[in-house]
Amino acid sequence: MLFRSRLVSTAICLALAILFCFVAYNLLRAEHTYIAVLPMDANQEMGYANPNWKGAVGVLKETLESANNTITVEDWNDSDHSSKKALEESVATRIGQWAPGKDDTVIVYVSANSICWKGAPYILYQDYQLDDLATGKKTTSVPVTDLFAQLADCKASCKLLIIDTGRIAYDPRLGVLVNEFPRLIEQKLKECSDEDLYVLLPCSSFESTAGIGSIRPSPFADFLTRALSGEADQDPKNQQLTLAELYSFIWNCSLANFGDAVAYRQKPVLLRGRHGVVQPNDAFVKNLVVVAELPKPAKADEDGSDADPGSDDTAKDKKTETAAQNRLRRRVSAVGLAWMQGPQKKKETEPPDRKSGA
């Protein structure tokens, strides 16, 4: 009798555990992923160019939207609108037009120059002049906290703000002695009560990001494109992308390509509302699915025509990738742009645990 009672208790506990896992999986699973891209044109008078993200946006739309109908990619800097107009008119309004549900993911990518002024992080518009913040002119920049407030109204289970910045490491003209942008972003996020809001930055404090002018996407943007296109689906390979996989992939790419560089040692940082710095092994980050259905990979051409420029890839040594990923890889010559090759040849390491000091 005692044995039967224990057996029933064990069966009930097992059933409850399975039910809990099922519910948790469905609560954390992204039903639809909305991606908004806001590449900001730079003011050339300041001497800082912003990378060109147009080609990458096209590849991303073709790769993701053609694969399934659970992903929407919009370029908010198209012919009818500008990124500045989108930010001025309200990001919240534009996101509201998507009507994301509680199981959806919203990703907002902003490529812009940024500075800190009087303890607050700012994103600069393309018409920003050197002394605008000092003279009180507020129409040429936007506090990042304004974006936090607008995203707070969104009901999505994950709101990921990606700010591709960090190109201004030192400029006395702008009042920038060191890059404190990541540290101040962390400080402001800890003051934010929205635990569904995440911010991904390409580098940590006192670092600067690598770039190649305004001709092509930044290395960080390329890593991000490849991650969203399916390359980051690694542990496990299940055609889904978790926030931990996304962050770890970009971290590994940065480490593999800039770890030994003197000028650019950029370490991406992931932050969360109320918590600050988070790590891939944090339970919620590890289980949070941001893309529920990634593109299914297709093998490269048998004749080896999809091989890397300047490489010895042949049909017998081809990679598994989508056609759009292949075109993204072939767009840039391997000579002089080794960062496009990714971290395949180096041992992957997880981002170190950091409790603060982004």
Short description:
The chain is of the alpha/beta class and 358 residues long. It is built from 10 helices and 14 strands.
Question: Topology, pairings included?
Answer:
Layout: H1 2-28, E1 33-39, H2 54-65, E2 71-75, H3 83-89, H4 91-98, E3 105-111, E4 114-117, E5 120-124, E6 141-143, H5 144-152, E7 158-164, H6 181-190, E8 197-201, H7 219-231, E9 241-242, H8 243-258, E10 269-272, E11 276-277, H9 283-287, E12 289-291, E13 298-299, E14 320-321, H10 323-330
Parallel strand pairs: 1-2, 1-3, 3-7, 7-8
Antiparallel strand pairs: 4-5, 5-6, 8-10, 9-12, 10-11, 13-14
Helix pairs in contact: 2-7, 2-10, 7-8
Describe this protein's structure.
The termini are far apart. The protein has a seven-stranded mixed sheet with strand order 2-1-3-7-8-10-11, sandwiched between helices. The protein has a three-stranded antiparallel sheet with strand order 4-5-6. The chain has ten helices and 14 strands. It has helices at residues 2-28, 54-65, 83-89, 91-98, 144-152, 181-190, 219-231, 243-258, 283-287, 323-330, and strands spanning 33-39, 71-75, 105-111, 114-117, 120-124, 141-143, 158-164, 197-201, 241-242, 269-272, 276-277, 289-291, 298-299, 320-321. Helix 2 packs parallel to helix 7 (219-231), helix 2 runs antiparallel to helix 10 and helix 7 crosses helix 8. It has 358 residues and is α/β, with parallel strands linked by helices. Strand 1 (33-39), helix 2 and strand 2 (71-75) form a beta-alpha-beta unit.
